[in-house]
């Protein structure tokens, strides 16, 4: 059995003579990559056009999720968190006016059903 090739990250950490704390972070990253090698096929993901974690994706997640749900002391149900995130996404994408029109129309139908409403089927 051939030993694994030395990690370029560890090699660079040694070359730069990192402090113990810096070296621990580099070693932790290497352990993560080694333990998840079977799942980290970034070349295939990029070829298929799939998104991988990037600054843009992480920034969007922070904007939509963390800035709203990570408020100290807040508690969220799954349904409540999903509703808040849906509204934040609609607002961020400038889709809120259309959404609100749709929402109020459905609420009106729910609260004030027509006598023959049950006779109609959904069509799309």
Account of the protein in words:
This protein is mainly α and 124 residues long. It has 2 domains: 8-40, no CATH class; 55-113, no CATH class. The protein has helices at residues 8-16, 20-35, 42-48, 55-69, 78-92, 96-111. The termini are far apart.
The pLDDT mean sits at 81
Helix content: 55-70%
Number of helices: 6
**Total tally of structural domains:** 2
Overall geometric form = elongated
Task: Summarize the main sheet.
Answer: none
- pLDDT < 50 runs, ≥5 residues: none
Q: Which structural class do you get from the secondary structure elements?
A: mainly alpha
Total strands: the figure is 0
Give the N-to-C terminal Cα separation.
60 Å
Q: Helix and strand string, N-terminal first?
A: HHHHHH
Output the radius of gyration.
Answer: 25 Å
- Which range does the strand content fall in? under 5%
